[in-house]
Amino acid sequence: MAVVCALTITFSYGQSIVYTPASDLTLVGKILPTQQVYHRVDTTDHPLMPPAVKRRLTNSAGLAIAFKTNSTVIAAKWCTSSRKTLPNMTAIAHEGLDLYIKNDGRWQFAGVGRPKGDCTAYTLVQNMEEGEKECLLYLPLYDETVSLEIGVEEGSSLQAMKDPFEKRILMYGSSILQGASASRPGMAYPARLSRDTGINFLNLGLSGSAKMEKAVADMIVTVKADAFVLDCVPNSSPEEIRERTAYLVNTIRQHHPLAPIIVIPRTVREHGAFDEEVGNWVKAQNEQIELEVSKLLRSGVKDLYLLSYDKQLGDDHEGTIDGGHPNDLGFDRMLQQLKPQLLKILRKYELTPTKGL
Amino acid sequence: MAVVCALTITFSYGQSIVYTPASDLTLVGKILPTQQVYHRVDTTDHPLMPPAVKRRLTNSAGLAIAFKTNSTVIAAKWCTSSRKTLPNMTAIAHEGLDLYIKNDGRWQFAGVGRPKGDCTAYTLVQNMEEGEKECLLYLPLYDETVSLEIGVEEGSSLQAMKDPFEKRILMYGSSILQGASASRPGMAYPARLSRDTGINFLNLGLSGSAKMEKAVADMIVTVKADAFVLDCVPNSSPEEIRERTAYLVNTIRQHHPLAPIIVIPRTVREHGAFDEEVGNWVKAQNEQIELEVSKLLRSGVKDLYLLSYDKQLGDDHEGTIDGGHPNDLGFDRMLQQLKPQLLKILRKYELTPTKGL
Asked: Which residue of B88, B90, B142, B332 to mutate against A (max A Cβ within 10 Å)?
């Protein structure tokens, strides 16, 4: 891999910082090829999808830049759209950056890019030891990343590196999957799964819009993936679950005959403990998905799995920011339950990293 | 307790909602009497405190409203200052509301007030069972609460209730104590401690400004408290820790001869693993506070405790939003270590609830 071209030089804290377009480096987590490099899916290729889905697909959730550098400083300049941060998210998660550096063989948090409006220049980390570092920079979860440049010290190296993750597991789901309400982009649950396992979990979280529409199912099956995880319960009405689950599962099976399809069978709305309408709605959603998957299994669909997810976000009801969206504590409890089950299935299909876990 | 006067009636979702000023109900977590009811300390009484400290004392961190109602809906109308939400916080935590309802003897999350600008009307929870509920509504952590009204169904009861927490433990510290970066007001760590233990932990978190200045120490000792917890390491330089810890501790001891003084001895900055300057700074802060407390203990100060806090925010480096501020996962890990130690000390002084824990 060649050292990429430096485009701009600016000065930060007395150091000369050289900026390089992130698109010259390695883009991790990409679902389908797109014209705008930080979109997840090119919506012009799938015109029948609902407008809300198309808008979500411009969000850079799950995308990250992988690179190596021997710089002691890492900075970034980036622009997002003018979309305002939602009240149940931090601006860092919504439109900021999140940097990890490999340390003793593990990805370790190193710094965030705090947004200061739609365009920001920020030093993510500085005063580091000399020597080469492997870096992974997560992009905004809930905004469109319009441009991104990565800055290193003048005279230091900056190189694309091999995608650190193996295989491709497409995760299709709601805001919870997209990253609401993780505190920063790297805390979205597919990102945590990837770092923990070395497997490439692709984030097709569509906030409020994971409703299993036919046009979305038809787009999903064009994705080159080794397995499919469906986390669509939160956004789909019991009726939609009843009407649409079979088409989604059968269409994936038809186009990907050997890929396991793994369903996350429940959602949680903590305020549903008091709001009886919400409680009944969630109960009906959860019962309906179990029913649909059971029917599909009985009809002979192979390699289809329904995960067990009983304890959900813990038993103290503190695992969400607003009842419906896990906070980092809720996500941690969720992964403690789901990760071992996911890995057990993926291992069976030889979809875990060659080095083992 | 009399049913308080209804002031305004509006209509929400077809229901008639009657609003009552929250100041007519029970204010929980109050540190000192103030003219503006949702300030924590009246800064005109302590003119020598630094301007930044005075500004923080107008934030309603740690304050909550306790009330009983048989309404099936709870709504709120509130106004905050024009201060913008920080990028490392959610707007719900910064300027929103957080409602808990007693369920089987425990405080349980019931709903949030999502801010929509400086003034908001919002239904926190609805469709509840009939019957009386005990409620605790947390106020914004990082903004001034200018006004607050609580709404219930017309014809339902709304009453002040007894403060649910016993004793008074003053916690003085930084942004971490004030609540950065909990996902919502009720997840600030003193609030979690109060709900978990039944003890009244008072939030004197002063974001960026817990520097143990003499004028602040002189204000602190005027607070009627049964114990003092000091979590000032994050904001104080090693030099300030060296120069100011003794005055703070000795002045508390002089004015509160029997109150235990409990020091949280460390702070964490996860990016300090890579940023050597930050890493060295934090190491120096943590060493200095241990040194100062050891000196005070050797000089004969009684009832002074230094907590043990080694594992800090866990070992995966995922417990913060930005390196310095815990996310809800980090706070949970922090409490798992600190809570048993705090309770052990408070039990010794008979400062745990009469019902026991």
From this structure: B90
